[in-house]
Amino acid sequence: MVVFIDPGHNGSNDASISRQVPTGRGGTKDCQASGTASAAGYQEHTFTWDTALRVRAELTALGVRTALARANDTGLGPCVDERASMANALHPNAILSIHADGGPPSGRGFHVNYSAPPLNQAQAGPSVQYARIMRDQMQASGIPPANYIGQNGLYGRSDLAGLNLAQYPSVLVECGNMKNPADSALMQSAEGRQKYADAMVRGVAGFLASQGQAR
């Protein structure tokens, strides 16, 4: 079993991130975005990297092979379409993209994104089921679903290239809102990042089990 983990954004950025790449639906978008940050200056890319390493360690302990979309939290790239190609080349059982949102300060909570309308069979059935299982596990962990975006912690959308280009079950988890004091406090603490990682690992493991794939 293989799970591809994408820690959102880059450790560093330059003008090249505005290069246009395919969206998977006929259009183009920037190669990468710089991401958001908390009011205290804690960067999204740092949160996603640390949390991804925690997820990888737990999945490895469960006997799952993993691969990361980027090698460190200092470098530039890859672009969003390249990350999707890297994932597809591995023929993974699941793809997990980890992000944090930059919403209104009053908005709190996580939301799980999936490609909609679907562009292939993996997106049509398995990805939606994966999103629901991930949502359930996040909520069961005591992390509230977003009160400002999506519906009941789920958000089917067509504008995320990584999800559009995925040929295997894929979700993008916005763990919380970095502009919200409660969410950002959780993200900025090691204990909080472990809580997010634990929940996402349970979501991945639950999805794999639902597909009849032994852990």
From TrEMBL:
Q: Tell me which Gene Ontology terms the entry assigns under biological process.
A: peptidoglycan catabolic process
Query: Which residue intervals define the domain MurNAc-LAA in the entry?
Result: 84-205
Cited CDD domains:
MurNAc-LAA
What GO CC annotations are associated with the protein?
outer membrane-bounded periplasmic space
UniProt entry tagged with the keyword Hydrolase: yes
Q: Does Hydrolase count among this protein's keywords?
A: yes
Entry's Gene Ontology molecular function annotations: N-acetylmuramoyl-L-alanine amidase activity
Q: Which stretches of sequence are listed as region Disordered? A: 1-29
Where are stretches of biased composition, namely Polar residues?
Answer: 10-21
Under InterPro entries, the record lists: MurNAc-LAA_cat, N-acetylmuramoyl_amidase_3
- Keywords for this entry? Hydrolase
NCBIfam families attached to this UniProt entry: amidase_Rv3717
Question: What protein name does the entry list?
Answer: N-acetylmuramoyl-L-alanine amidase
Recorded source organism is Mycobacterium indicus pranii (strain DSM 45239 / MTCC 9506)
- Lineage of the source organism? Bacteria, Bacillati, Actinomycetota, Actinomycetes, Mycobacteriales
